[in-house]
Design goal:
121 residues; mainly beta; seven-stranded mixed sheet; four-stranded antiparallel sheet; 11 strands
């Protein structure tokens, strides 16, 4: 089970840190990604951290967030630190988990949280 938290209303240029907590399994054995979905748009892969990586570890980022967002994790929680936020970052943010290799395709992830709203305005 995955549960996101930390979403909020923030001004442009501000920062926010999201958390994805797990229960029932050790998230370190899973590849974990953050996705986001804005109204009227398709779900977009934001970043993924490789299975087994702790701290900031091995990760991939979408071009739209490179240099502004950082994914990291400890044993049971994955974090998304977001800096220099822009209005176009407004979306519901989801964490998702999968076994095996990394991916930023939502169809590859069987386990999802409920999402947390981030609004930049």
């Amino acid at each position: 089970q995955l549960a996101e938290s930390g979403g909020a209303l923030v001004q442009p240029g501000g920062s926010l840190k999201l958390s994805c907590a797990t229960s029932g399994f050790s998230i370190s054995s899973f590849c974990v990604a953050w996705f986001r979905q804005a109204p009227g748009k398709e779900r977009e892969g934001v970043t993924v951290i490789y299975r087994g990586s702790l701290g900031t570890g091995r990760a991939l980022y979408a071009d739209s967030v490179k240099g502004r967002f950082t994914i990291s994790r400890d044993k049971n929680t994955v974090y998304l630190e977001m800096d220099s936020l822009r209005p176009e970052d407004t979306a519901v943010y989801y964490c998702a988990a999968k076994v095996g290799g990394s991916s930023l395709k939502s169809a590859d992830f069987p386990y999802w949280g409920q999402g947390t709203q981030v609004t930049v305005s």
